[in-house]
Amino acid sequence: MGNPLPKPSRKLRVAKKNHKLYSKSYKNFLWKESERQMGDFALAYDDQHPGFSSVASSRGRVGHITGLGFDGITKRFVWENKKREEAPMWLIKPLVQVLEKARENNLDGILSLDIQQELSENKLSLKRLPRLFILTEDTLARLLDLTRGIDDREEF
User: Fold this and answer.
1) 132: β partners
2) At what angle do helices 137-147 and 24-45 cross, to 10 degrees?
3) How confident is the model at residue 95 (pLDDT cuts 50, 70, 90)?
4) Residues 84, 90, 91, 97: is their CA dihedral positive or negative?
5) Mean pLDDT over residues 81-88, rounded?
6) Measured on CA atoms in the order 103, 105, 109, 112, is the torsion positive or negative?
7) Is 141 helix (H, G, I), strand (E, B) or coil?
8) Strand partners, 78
9) Which of 108, 106, 127 is nearest to 117 (CA)?
10) What are phi and psi of 93, to 5 degrees?
11) Which residues contact 24 (CB under 8 A, 6 or more apart)?
């Protein structure tokens, strides 16, 4: 389906020109814009969650409701969006490596994170995190296109 996200809005382009790069209001604007873009992406592949229709924004965002503990929700997804100016090099190096090798071989790149750290008490009573996967927006979009309309959660 390609990238469903629109170009940055005129409001964002104007904000970039009129705000100092590190002002608090500009940073707040950027993280909200990032959440909105994630909501646009999620809703391009899924429907609004009916149980949250009274509190969710038109982009599926519920982060403005304190206490929920996540940024957005659709029928199949709950998401937390993080916007950072920098990430640790232990994460950047393998991301760049897998994306370069994927491009060289005309394939999709996936980075697997198997974090062995023991966790203290949490709501899920997890002793450690399950294996996590990082993939590009385009790869995720293609996978979601392939699974559109399939809901196999009933089998579990």
Assistant:
1) 113
2) 30
3) very high
4) positive
5) 88
6) negative
7) helix
8) 73
9) 127
10) -60, -50
11) none
